[in-house]
Write a structure and sequence with these properties.
The protein is mainly alpha-helical. It is 58% helix and 1% strand. It is found in: Cell membrane.
């Protein structure tokens, strides 16, 4: 007989030994006869509140900078590990002087704002909400607080979307809400806006709303470049499942919404609009990248880093596509999304500390195991501390206080190895789907939408094709490989 699973949340303490051990702080693992706390303590609501609380804790961590370190030389904000771009760019990108992003030229070498259009709008809205009176320090503080409030709303959206994407596993979103790197990096820059739109896009895809997913991917790409990469996994998965109409809707929705947001600035301020793209192309090797590590260790300038990074990125993405088409079972959307974004981060010319935020929600959906997640997060926290201590060293002059270059190289290596480790266990889950914790209850792809339970129509090599039968009714899962037909 077919094994059917009802749509009840899966308590993480029953499947994850680390979660079970951690639950001792609040009374121990979920028991057989335990009852939920009712509608008010719904898992999604709890996860959102935890995310907001942890975000607030991250704001407290920035308190030394908020009080004085942002305004009294560079070194203190590095030694306290509380740096943020937000108050500094309020001044140096013209928001304090009421300049219009992309349309008004900036003093200095930057010329125009170097952020995508939707992020520029986010920054401008925060500037409009910042009162103009008082000292410049006070205005910078208020601007950071306004941005923090808006970014906190984005964090809550991410938590809700991640919790709702896998219907039976809402508690996996605690991996995002409790991630140490989330606490430390949430208010360094404006990345949470693009991440919130990306998380909402994945939620829409999981509900079978391909066009809405595409529109949100387009908007997310208008805020940060990386979300467009999600169209790659959707392409190969829809190819394997024969879902071309749904992929076409997502691709057209993404192109249309991106163009709708960008067109007014493209037409009215072309030089300002293209600054983000020219800056990304011309930017030299910078902090945190594998290329910086290679350059520093070898002494080579790596003048062609753009070419090397692009070729390596394309090669690895091709490998991910091949993996998707040859795997014994069609990979889950979240798994491929994580791998593609991780590859982009690993091959990029720069790795800013807040880039880890791009991966945290994807990791929670791709590999919801606390042990592996915490191993990776430990490496990322080490890098977070390493870069600030290294910058403190470079700004301390003859005092040489902080982390020398050799220590910073170790921090980069830890970041790279931690990300590669998590990629490796995700690839292992793809190749050995019986080890995928999400599929242990008989689920196929809870974030897959139209892909969930769909049969394969195209594979390569010895990939096993799914039996051709209808997807179970919503809220149920059929054990893989069991044909319910008499």
């Amino acid at each position: 007989m077919t094994k059917v699973h009802q749509d009840h949340p899966v308590p993480p303490t029953r499947q994850d030994e680390v979660a079970a051990a951690g639950s001792e702080l609040i009374g121990g693992p979920w028991g057989r006869f335990a009852r939920s706390g009712g509608q008010w303590l719904h898992p999604v609501r709890v996860v959102a509140l935890v995310a907001i609380g942890m975000f607030a804790l991250g704001m407290v961590q920035k308190l030394p900078c908020y009080d004085w370190a942002w305004f009294r030389g560079a070194g203190s904000q590095y030694t306290h590990a509380c740096y943020s771009d937000i108050p500094h760019l309020y001044v140096v990108r013209g928001f304090a002087d009421h300049l219009t992003p992309y349309f008004d030229r900036l003093p200095g070498d930057m010329e125009y704002l170097e952020y995508p259009v939707l992020t520029g709008l986010f920054m401008q809205v925060a500037a409009w909400l910042t009162p103009g009176g008082g000292s410049m320090q006070h205005r910078e503080q208020i601007y950071w607080m306004v941005n923090a409030g808006m970014l906190m709303a984005c964090a809550a959206v991410i938590a809700v979307c991640v919790a709702r994407t896998h219907r039976r596993r809402p508690w996996d979103a605690l991996l995002f809400a409790l991630a140490p790197a989330f606490v430390l990096t949430a208010t360094i820059n404006w990345d949470l806006l693009a991440i919130a739109l990306t998380a909402a896009a994945m939620l829409m895809w999981s509900r079978g709303r391909a066009l809405a997913c595409g529109i949100l991917i387009g908007l997310a790409t208008a805020a940060k470049l990386y979300p467009v990469l999600l169209l790659g996994p959707l392409f190969v998965l829809c190819w394997r499942a024969g879902k071309w109409r749904q992929f076409g809707a997502a691709a057209l929705g993404a192109a249309g919404s991106w163009l709708l947001v960008n067109a007014p600035v493209m037409l009215g301020a072309w030089d300002g609009w293209k600054k983000f793209y020219t800056f990304s192309q011309e930017r030299p090797i910078d902090f945190g990248s594998v290329w910086l590590l290679i350059s520093q260790r070898s002494g080579l300038p790596l003048d062609n880093a753009n070419t090397y990074a692009t070729l390596l990125m394309l090669l690895l993405c091709g490998g991910i596509g091949l993996l998707a088409l040859t795997a014994p079972r069609r990979p889950r959307f979240a798994q491929l999304a994580f791998l593609v974004v991780a590859v982009f981060i690993l091959t990029n010319k720069v790795y800013s500390p807040q880039y880890v935020l791009w991966l945290i929600p994807l990791a929670a959906l791709a590999r919801p195991r606390w042990r592996d997640f915490l191993i990776w997060q430990t490496c990322e926290v080490a890098y977070f501390l390493g870069i600030w201590l290294y910058l403190a060293y470079t700004t301390s002059g003859d005092k040489h206080q902080g982390l020398p270059v050799e220590g910073y190289q170790l921090a980069i290596a830890l970041h790279l190895l931690g990300t590669l480790y998590l990629c490796a266990v995700v690839v292992r889950d793809v190749l050995l789907p019986e080890r995928d914790v999400v599929r242990r209850d008989g689920s196929d792809d809870p974030s897959g939408g139209v892909l969930d339970g769909a049969p394969d129509v195209f594979t390569l090599g010895h990939a096993a094709r799914a039996p051709r039968y209808a997807t179970p009714s919503q809220g149920q899962r059929v054990e893989w490989g069991v044909d319910p037909r008499p």
